[in-house]
Design a protein that fits this description.
The chain is mainly α and 163 residues long. Helix content is 47%, strand content 9%. It starts with 12 loop residues before the first helix and ends with a strand.
Length: 163
């Protein structure tokens, strides 16, 4: 018998003890999931297993950590709805996945960060930038200084050809 009431009587007592501890932990987590709010439960699980620290130590750890923090924010948003509990949260996340609601990755940079941003014209719609490089717009590449009037006729502003 692999698992017995008394781990000493099992075929592999060390394995039986590990299984017994895992089952005890699952029982504790089930009980906690019923009594805690979703944000409290998610934070408790991450603390118990040192999950944030583990993910932060992996390659791309800062991004992984930011994504976990975004998940914790989603638990707070979920708790503000009329639904509560782990089961409903899992269903909530499944519905978001079903309807392709993509929150993307959490950004490590602020919107005011002094960085170069590369994006499609579609993604940049409605945004204003002091300088835009437009590649493959014809036979030459263009560099455009932003001008709301679009005086050069391209709609992008003052354009200069780059060779």
């Amino acid at each position: 018998m692999l698992l017995a009431e008394d781990p000493e009587q099992a075929e592999d007592p060390v394995l039986a003890e590990k299984i017994q501890k895992a089952l005890q932990m699952l029982t504790e987590l089930r009980e906690q999931a019923v009594t805690d709010t979703m944000p409290e439960f998610a934070q408790a699980v991450m603390r118990r297993f040192h999950y944030i620290e583990y993910m932060t130590a992996l390659p791309g750890g800062e991004q992984r950590r930011a994504n976990l923090e975004m998940l914790l924010e989603k638990t707070v948003e979920f708790e503000a709805t009329s639904y509560h509990g782990l089961f409903q949260f899992i269903r909530y996340m499944q519905q978001l996945q079903k309807y392709d609601v993509d929150f993307g990755e959490s950004s490590l940079l602020s919107e005011q960060a002094d960085v170069v941003r590369i994006m499609t014209i579609h993604k940049s719609k409605g945004l204003e930038f002091p300088v835009c490089f437009c590649g493959r717009t014809g036979s030459v590449n263009l560099i455009c200084g932003y001008d709301k009037a679009g005086a050069d006729g391209c709609g992008l502003g003052h354009c200069h050809e780059l060779y």
